[in-house]
Amino acid sequence: MRQIERSIFDLRRGVPVLVRGRDRDTLVAPLEGLTDETLTRLRATTGNPPALVVTRHRLERMGIEIAADAARLSLTDGDSAQTVVAWACARHVEHSPHQRPTDVDRESHAALALMRRGLLIPAAVTATIDASRREAVQKLIDDQTLLAIDVDRIEAYESSAIHFLRRISAADVPLADAEKSRFVLFREADGVREHIAIVIGEPEFWRTAVPVRLHSACLTGDLFGSLRCDCGEQLRSSVATIAERGGGVLLYLAQEGRGIGLANKLRAYSLQDDGLDTVDADQVLGFGDDERDYNVALEMLAQLEIRRIELLTNNPAKIAAMSGGGIAVVQRSGVYGRLTAQNERYLTAKAARSGHWLDNVLGKPSADVAMNGKG
Question: Does 344 carry a binding-site annotation?
Fold first, then answer.
């Protein structure tokens, strides 16, 4: 576990890590902080030319179609760091004729998994260690200059990380719309994300369907009242609604920007200012339509011993995730903010491309939906 935490920490600092596979060792460097010197060091350390590993979403924006989730693009000595970063996440880019996508190995998949866990751009520069360089690389590992981590360990962590969610602390925090509220903080094992369960009023966990809102953190909207989204109004409306119902839980999830993190969300905002909608902007950066994983919400509900819920949401994916995880969603209630000139394109994209139920906001009638326990 500590190796995973250290590898994420190193990558977020721009420091390469070594991913050890059964048949090969691969040096992995993040896109953030990539320089020409980094590329030169990768070549010298590994004895092999590096490659750029990117997701299928990013390749599609480059006009390259593949069937797999990711692929490698070869790099040459003439490719600068600026060019490589552009291939990974710029809106307007032309790929070179020498770039032919090739299949990725387990080590490359593991590299992308580490980038996502670290809330970095989902791309990496990788190079396989040549036999002639193994002794020198091992010396770097022995000197603790370079961290090595087994690919098996990364894969095992990805499949089981959610089960290491720990309840850290709790306190009563009176809110403007719900004076009786208790904040319970949960922390993921790698320490990157912390989530809060806000228990409002006196929810009857055992006898009724508990009103629950899954709210992904939005610093710009929740705290600063950004007009680009409706998140802040949804948050406050949910707290008030749950209080009016007598009690329930709001799960405040550290999934900024639909799971891509604040830095990437701001990058996506810049792309939206250039004419893209929210989905296309995320795809330019290499992300899918929605990177959120609601397993953390399921684990929080399990630790709170909540099994039946009334879900406050406009998002069908949340209902599917809860139902698929064994939570009985007996009813769905919408939760809305105002339609403004600044957020209309964002809300329209969520409705048209992600299936969110926003007819009430966008000018069409819609009713709350009884789920009959099936989601």
Answer: no
